[in-house]
Design a protein that fits this description.
alpha+beta; 5-stranded antiparallel beta sheet; 12 helices; globular
């Protein structure tokens, strides 16, 4: 138990105390994030989804996977440490003598030179159904059929848990777990794989009865996993998933620094509700935001992929843009919404990532933004020189204790009215705070309405949102050029959802009445200025600009350079 007045700092301080006493996990601040967090990505799971329709000449056995049930891949068991036949039989179009998965990865990175990292999915126990017992060359395993506790049976009804209980898991003995991870990771590393997404992590707590209990079993597995990750993937080349069991956080996060903080993105309801296309999206975002308050002390929150052609794609994109985590989609091949994706990613594949991870604002920490019919989800984050507020109407779905699953609550899918203020942003919480001491005025830019408002820190604006509608507010400190008392605040690239993330540097020269900002990216750059500048330059060259509604607008070209464009405003 920990006590404090600041809810965000309270959780951090409590985790520091637990870290000292247990010594079994690493805090996020002690670890380095993998490079993938700063690059736009693509995930194949929802692109092809989870169903397999084999023909008579079943290829599954050839792929090193033992089929347990037909049509769905959930219950397969691993029988070889190798890629499937599609990759194994690949022949390079550039160098025909190069074959296999290594040749495929090499060709992929050469053909698309912005691809830096390729990750592969794996399950904590080897595969969904574990390792097949009695297979020569594989670690010793035995079938374990979970006995789910009465308390768990009274909570969420989940088809994954039901399938595991029915079909069992081929569990490698804990003293041989290092052989399993070495077999998996050494092969993946040898063919050019850069990291792994580890799934089905919570399953260990269902399998521990004959192995000294959940703590002893998970300790053995995470010691072996951590050693293998350090050896093959720099320790942090990992995305963790389905890891919401506390065992993972307190025993498995010595080096893992990135993990999912919500359920899967479900484009439709897996239980068949046709309205799930809509209400499930709000549930997803609420879970990610609130789970991050605790989980973000161990792992950097990953809000999962989404699909850019989904009917709520913009709703998801706006949240991912300011989540502070990686941004990736799972679009079907050839079915990308590039107009939307260009608001998230730059031409070189980089993203304008926030400095922190998004969290709920104080005024909705103890409210229900999913099904109370009145509360909007408000999340905040920080860029280098501004803050950002995300306002989302997620009402219309949530937990049902009777049916033990999430369900639609259409009676709550109403217009909500919320209040937004510069004070909603926690300016001093992260390692690189935005200093606001002495700041009296903020420029607040509304992404959707493209309007600018000047506000004091204590002032509030009223925003109304229909169900599954949203607004993003870039909140920037107003500085003053002293000679002529000119007010100025950078907004950012307003063609990007995280507009303020484009501002990389800010310098005021009072003697020359000049303001210089560094900008990453391309597109429509807007700044607030109380007077019109007499000239603007990009990297020293004069450029045209427009001045309307106290905003200066400049079109910034793409330079394909690691250095930001330098924009000067002369007054």
């Amino acid at each position: 138990m920990h006590v404090g007045e600041d809810p965000y700092n309270l959780v951090k301080e409590a985790m520091k105390v637990a870290r000292v006493h247990l010594g079994t996990f690493g805090l996020l601040q002690e670890k380095c994030l993998p490079d993938i967090v700063d690059k736009f990505g693509w995930c194949t799971w929802d692109a092809f989804h989870r169903f397999v329709n084999p023909k008579d000449d079943d290829p599954i056995q050839k792929e090193g996977i033992d089929r347990v049930t037909t049509g769905e891949e959930k219950r397969y068991r691993l029988i070889k440490f190798q890629e499937n036949y599609r990759f194994k039989d690949y022949e390079s179009t550039k160098t025909p003598s190069n074959k296999g998965m290594g040749a495929f990865i090499k060709d992929l990175k050469e053909e698309f030179n912005t691809i830096q990292d390729v990750y592969v999915w794996e399950a904590l126990c080897g595969f969904w159904g574990g390792i097949r017992p009695n297979v020569p060359g594989m670690p010793e395993s035995r079938m374990v059929y979970p006995h789910v506790s009465p308390s768990l049976l009274m909570t969420m009804k989940d088809f994954a848990t039901e399938n595991i209980t029915r079909d069992g898991v081929g569990l490698v003995r804990p003293e041989q777990a290092h052989k399993m991870y070495e077999g998996l990771h050494s092969h993946l590393k040898s063919v050019g794989i850069d990291g792994v997404k580890i799934d089905v992590i919570e399953v260990l707590e269902l399998l521990a009865e004959d192995y000294g209990g959940r703590v002893e079993l998970t300790k053995a597995y995470y010691v072996a996993l951590t050693a293998s990750l350090k050896k093959h993937f720099k320790g942090n080349g990992v995305i963790s998933s389905m890891q919401h069991a506390s065992d993972f956080f307190f025993l498995g996060t010595e080096t893992i620094a990135l993990g999912r903080v919500g359920d899967d993105f479900w484009g439709t309801d897996p239980y068949g509700d046709p309205k799930g296309t809509f209400w499930l999206q709000g549930c997803h975002m609420v879970h990610c935001a609130y789970n991050s308050l605790w989980m973000g002390n161990f792992i950097h929150p990953d809000w999962d992929m989404f699909q850019s052609h989904h009917r709520c794609a913009e709703f998801h994109a706006a949240s991912r843009a300011i989540s502070g985590g990686p941004i990736y989609v799972s679009d079907s091949v050839g079915n990308f919404n590039f107009d939307l994706l260009k608001k998230l990613a730059l031409p070189d594949g980089s993203i304008l990532r926030c400095q922190h991870y998004a969290l709920p604002t104080r005024d909705c920490l103890f409210e229900d933004p999913s099904h109370d019919g009145k509360t909007a989800l408000k999340i905040w984050n920080l860029n280098k020189y501004s803050g950002v507020l995300g306002l989302f109407n997620c009402q219309g779905g949530g937990w049902c204790p009777q049916s033990r699953r999430k369900k639609s609550y259409p009676e709550f899918a109403n217009l909500v009215v919320c209040y937004a203020s510069p004070k909603d942003i926690e300016w001093n919480i992260c390692n690189n705070p935005v200093f606001v001491d002495g700041v009296s005025i903020y420029a607040v830019y509304m992404y959707q309405s493209k309007k600018l408002m000047l506000m004091k820190s204590t002032e509030k604006m009223v925003i109304s949102l229909e169900p599954l509608n949203w607004e993003l507010l870039t909140v920037s400190r107003v500085a003053i050029l002293p000679k002529r008392q000119i007010q100025f605040a950078p907004i950012g690239l307003v063609n990007m959802l995280n507009s303020g993330g484009a501002i990389q540097s800010l310098e005021l020269d009072g003697n020359k009445n000049l303001i210089r900002i560094g900008v990453e990216g391309r597109g429509e750059l807007k700044v607030f200025a109380s007077e019109e500048p007499w000239a603007c330059t990009i990297d020293g060259a004069p450029v045209e600009f427009a001045y309307n509604d106290e905003m200066v607008r400049i079109e910034v070209p793409w330079l394909n350079s690691p250095m930001p464009s330098m924009i000067e405003y002369l007054f």
